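Archive entry: two folds, one per protein. Generate the first.
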Amino acid sequence: MNHGIVEIDHLMCGVDDAERAGTSFERMGFRVTPLSAIEPMGLGNRCVLFASRTPGAACYLELMSILDAAKVSTTMTRTLGGGERVKSMVMVTPDCDACYQSLLAGGFAPPSPPIHLQRDWHFPGGGTVRPAFAVILPMPAPLTFNVCQHKSLDLYLRLEWTSHPNGALGLDSVIAVAREPQAVLGFYERLFGARAATDAAGLARVSPANVGLRVGTAAQIAAVFPDVELPDAQTAAYVGIGIRVVSLASVRRLLDRSGVPYEVLARNALLVPASHAHGNFIEFTEVSQ
């Protein structure tokens, strides 16, 4: 049973300043949407949108910061606290209300029924669209997750935003360190209705469709990603983001021009450190189309 969850739709990245974080991602060769306020929630975001491989899902990074603390719920204040980092995997479902009921029946603990929202999204040079969506707020889990329902999915798949100078194709994965990976994986196997497997790099991976959660101990993560600084004294934490690209050579040239540091990994990948990506390292992996 997957509780109506179709895919890991996007990653909510908590940042101190969404405008500044967007500029950092632009230096890495991503096309980033303008700052957009979600006024009823007191939040604002900039997004790095990709083409989606999964019908019914978007695919993006959400760079989110607090704009009006007085409007931010206790749940979101807690979720976004504790420094810059991926704060939540956001799953997508075609029906948030049905998903909420299924999660409750399955023993999960969503904090409140879905919130249905609509907001203005302004574009440079004029033009405004009004995406509508529903969200189930983050809930207790080994690694925080929440759920969304897109009511204007086409707005997240527009070619002018999903085409990137660095040749990025989309999300591959979110990477996490855990003291007990099997406990984390068991939770998400139950949520996704899917079994975990070991990937080519030696990390365990579980996924509802195409975008995966990759988990390892500190030693396993360090073996795959040398010189990565890992958080201390946590049961589990998000530490990295995997991005699929057309050409690593093109990514390297762009990063060199922008002065963004990176490390070439032994396998067909390169890594931008968390210090230049607002809290999580970014692994670029070349894939054949």
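Generate the second and append.
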Amino acid sequence: MDEPSHIARLEAVFEQPVSGCQTLGRTWGLQVLKVEFPEGPPVLAKAGVPDLPGHLEIEAFMLRELMVQSDLPVPGVLHCEADLLAIEWIDNDGPPKSRAHEHHAAELLAELHSHSSPIFGYGRNTVIGGLFQPNGESESWVEFFTHKRLLYMARIALGEGALAAGEFSRLETLAGRLERYLEEPDKPSLLHGDLWQGNILVKGEQIAGMIDPAVYFGHREIELAFTTLFGTFGDAFFDAYGALCPLDQEFFTLRKDLYNLYPNLVHAALFGRSYVPPILRVLDRLGI
């Protein structure tokens, strides 16, 4: 889609001329724009033919689900078509930087994780980054994580040439042993699903928004583990979260590294073998 085309369509949707349009970047085949109008707040638009068919419609679905089911600050969906998504602009100062941000994030995520479902997964498949994320429903968390997260994404990484056949075989061996290491939670928790630093926006000392979700019901520990992978949150977050929803020490010593196999496999599938060494270190540690 060329720029005049989507500008004209946005003008029709919002019934006023566009007074400013700033390109913020490109992601997964989409142009990301800050669009301004003479009246009202700016809008964030994603325009183009996405790499994944249906990506924008799935993103809109996930944002609406989080808005309805939780108190998580997510942008409202203003308009959605297959090649054009318009959502509320979140005024922000960038990613989290302070203890106050971490404390507020802990409160928000504890509230999010309090929302539950009878099953793990979701009623439809979603996306994570530029990849489909299957959400077939399961009554067992370990079974769901094994087949819908670990092995599914390992096969994608293998097919992309990021993972060698022998490395995939080692992950298959681990998959057969996961019941030794992982626990079934008391209940499935609603998850944002993609909480790296760039998807968390702050304003002042508060979390202003959490964007680009990869929603499903799972074990809250996989969400918490992901926040350690790229330094999103630290001790201040975990102290505050743990005061609300206690975590046992084995999460920190073992399970977080097992759960982070999934986002590392996602990144390996998308960006290559530089994300494989952390995966192999976990396998080495377990003697696999």
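Annotation attached to the second fold: The chain is about 45% helix and 20% strand. The longest strand covers residues 20-27.
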